[in-house]
Design a protein that fits this description.
- This protein has 2 domains: 7-254, Aspartate Aminotransferase, domain 2; 257-390, Aspartate Aminotransferase, domain 1, CATH 3.90.1150.10.
- By secondary structure, it is α/β, with parallel strands linked by helices.
- It contains 15 helices and 12 strands.
- Helix 3 packs parallel to helix 10 (244-254).
- It has helices at 7-13, 39-46, 62-74, 86-97, 112-124, 137-143, 166-175, 188-191, 225-238, 244-254, 257-276, 295-301, 316-326, 356-362, 378-392; strands at 79-83, 103-107, 128-132, 148-154, 179-183, 201-205, 219-223, 281-285, 308-313, 331-332, 342-344, 368-372.
- The protein starts with 6 loop residues before the first helix and ends with a helix.
- Helix 5 (112-124) links the parallel strand 2 (103-107) and strand 3.
- Bound molecules: ligand LCS.
- Ligand LCS binds at residues 85-87, 111, 113-114, 154, 158, 183, 185, 205, 207, 217, 219, 334-336, 350.
């Protein structure tokens, strides 16, 4: 049997080739509809047959098909769908998998937009939602109800980098007759393959590391043929299809994903160790530090620590603000996973939608600063934090 190609080779090659006119790069098929040869062919296509029909209907365009094929290979899935944003992928997931009377369990530490979707939209549709500390398997077990249909994990979690046990939780979810979905935005398939660990669906914001350059909005869902089939109809109806140019940019982004992720992780570990040893820093959250509460679990289920960290400086919110205002190389901005280093304040920016009491309980304190560590030379990133911390010490 032929050996499956390694991850880096799949980043470069999977899903590509067989282009018209011998084109080396996959072309951007800038078309919204397709011309049929005759009425019979059109009918066959619209009654579930193969072929391209209309840009909103998967497989959308050959550019989308190449990207979906590549990301499906990288996530070790069987099928995938491309969306206009990570939120569009999550919206299609919950609308497809849940109905009135069902119960969703979600990690309590999640991106603020996801919290907004689950806490505001789903109850309107008659879906019960519980936000649970999914790092605690006993708490999770006692939260499962008869009507639990979906467990949603974000691991590593935004912004505290909490890690949940995907393998163990997939067993618990399946035993209860529920599906497991994992948001793999922070780790990317380079460092974590939730489907291999037992998850049914992976969702991911491509706006982050997949695109990789802070210049696009996109999302994907990858899973078994059965799980993705269940979402396909909803993806068409909800209409949040990825744009063709974005699909092409994501296809290109994937080609260097393995290289970028290694450098993001190398720089992040370097910065985390520096911050942990700095007298002006109270606490650092990074899965690669021995002090991280789920360090051993992260070492088991991830093949790299990733490029995200968060930390608290002595002096709380005021000191954190002064630090962010004094950085010169690193930019103050939301989003993450870009080649450049971005710093933000979760309590007033990405997670402002969460009630303060809930935030505090989960460790998203007013003094917490989140860093998406870029791929610059690490000495320059360190120098910038050193001069910033000096000003507030
Ligand atoms: N999942 C995670 C873990 C995220 O961090 C985000 C966005 C999303 C899903 C949604 O993806 P989008 O629709 O934006 O493509 N996170 C952001 C953040 O931390 N800052 O700005 C956006």
């Amino acid at each position: 049997m032929e050996r499956e190609r390694s991850f880096g080779t799949r980043c470069v090659h999977a899903g590509e080739g067989h282009n018209p006119f011998g084109a080396h790069a996959t072309p951007i098929y800038q078309t919204s509809t397709y011309v049929f040869e005759n009425a019979e062919q059109a009918e066959a296509s619209f009654s579930g047959g193969p072929g391209y029909k209309y840009i909103r209907s998967p497989p959308n365009t050959p550019t989308h098909a190449a990207f979906i094929s590549k990301i499906t290979s990288l996530e070790d899935g069987a099928a995938g769908l491309a969306f206009s944003s990570g939120m569009a992928a999550e919206t299609a997931l919950v609308l497809a998998m849940l109905e009135k009377g069902d119960h969703l369990i979600s990690s309590d530490v999640i991106y603020g937009g996801t919290y907004g979707l689950f806490s505001k939209l789903l109850p309107k549709l008659g879906v019960e939602v519980s936000f649970v500390d999914t790092t605690d398997l006993e708490k999770l077990s006692s939260s499962i109800r008869k009507n639990t249909r979906l467990v949603f994990l974000e691991t590593p979690a935004n912004p505290t980098l909490a890690i949940s046990d995907i393998g163990e939780i997939s067993r618990m979810a399946h035993e209860a007759g529920a599906l497991l979905a994992v948001d793999n935005t922070f780790a990317t398939p380079c460092f974590q393959r939730p489907l291999q660990l037992g998850a049914d669906v992976v969702v991911e914001s491509c706006t982050k590391y997949i695109g990789g350059h802070g210049d696009l909005l996109g999302g994907v869902a990858v899973g078994s043929e059965k799980a993705i089939s269940a979402m396909r109809r909803m993806a068409v109806s909800a209409g949040g299809t990825m744009g063709t140019h974005e699909a092409w940019l994501c296809l290109r982004g994937c080609k260097t994903l393995h290289l970028r992720m290694e450098r993001h992780a190398e720089n992040a570990l370097h910065l985390a160790l520096y911050l942990e040893g700095h007298p002006a820093v109270e606490k650092v959250n990074y899965p690669g530090l021995a002090s991280h509460p789920q360090h051993a679990l992260a070492a088991r289920q991830m093949s790299g620590w990733g490029g995200m960290l968060s930390f608290e400086v002595n002096g709380g919110v005021q000191a954190g603000r002064s630090l962010m205002n004094s950085l010169r190389l690193c930019s103050l901005a939301v989003s993450l996973g870009s080649v450049d280093t971005l710093v933000e304040h979760p309590a007033s920016m990405t997670h402002a939608v969460m009630p303060k009491e809930m935030r505090e309980q989960m460790g998203i304190t007013d003094g917490l600063v989140r860093v998406s560590v870029g791929i610059e030379d690490k000495e320059d990133i360190l120098d910038d934090f050193a001069q910033g911390l000096e000003r507030i010490s």
